[in-house]
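Below is our example:
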Amino acid sequence: MASSAGRRGRPRQTEVARLAGVSQTTVSLVLGGNKQGIALHEDTRARVLAAARELGYVPDPAARRMARARNNLLGVFSFTSTFPVDVEHSYYPILVGVEREAVARGYDLVLFTGASSKAAQPGAPQRVRMADGCLFLGRHIPEDELRRLVADGYPAVHIGRRDELDGLAWVGVDYVSASAEVVRHLAGLGHRRIVLVREADDAPASDDRERGFRMAGLGVADVAAVVRTSRPAAEITPDWVRAQVAGGITAFVAEETDTGAAWRQLLAAVDGAGLDVPGEISLALLGSPPADLAGRPQPTGFDVPRAELGSAAVRMATALLTGDDATEPLVPCTFRPGRTAGPARSRTH
């Protein structure tokens, strides 16, 4: 669970929302005077006010001072080489969720595109201070820059698990459970020798997928084979695939990343090896396939609810801004049966 430390004892808007049977957004609107002019039923407003009185809710004075100084601008900063506005980019659905939730909460968005060269320059993330708070996107981040923002008390939220950076709020996906479910599915099809192909860095999302992969295979399948590749095109080749299959491997699993490099190369290598999928070998993808590969058979795996992840990030950021509980559960993934995994082929003949 991603969270931000908060004071204890003071009733929070989340408690008011629970008692009133409404969303926290509605509570925030009612208690904030509904400056956005959003239509609210009078009964709903009355329930919120009654719940606030019953709980003894009093707005945090520090949060109120912050609110008076805000201009209702929420930033989005991407550490990708180009800002992910292409609908085929894996981050695009996250931005859809961000925009949807920001509009509902009365915030305008500021997109800090910083050209790819600028985004990599020291100090670039400090430009986000013109916004009340900022959401950060990217597999690789400049930790020193974000640490400085956090130390200054700036409301920063990373979209994706970043608990290795102390004090940075984040929202994340439950990749561990989702990856374990994919392996259990393959084991149920009789696969006992499975290889995971992942990138060579230590990105938290990759580590979480590997953790779920290993966890599900304990006592069920030999999933200890994890291949970390920094050069997929050179290392994941048709010859490598043939050697793995000759050694008894019946299924390959790849992680999804923003580039999809591991999955793309695995598909190319299997095609080059002339193997039928799923007749001769099964494949699974821990995530959603790149949009430009939509013409390929749908891979077995799971789908990441990216729009919900973006919405959760906005909820987290606005909670930090208002002094409310800044807590969001891990977003669950949906298993995708797909068409690339079938019964394990016997190697005894």
User: Anything to note?
Assistant: Residues 3-8, 115-120 have pLDDT under 50 and may be disordered. Residues 70-173+306-333 form a domain with the Rossmann fold fold (CATH 3.40.50.2300). The chain has 13 helices and 13 strands. The two ends are 48 Å apart (CA to CA).
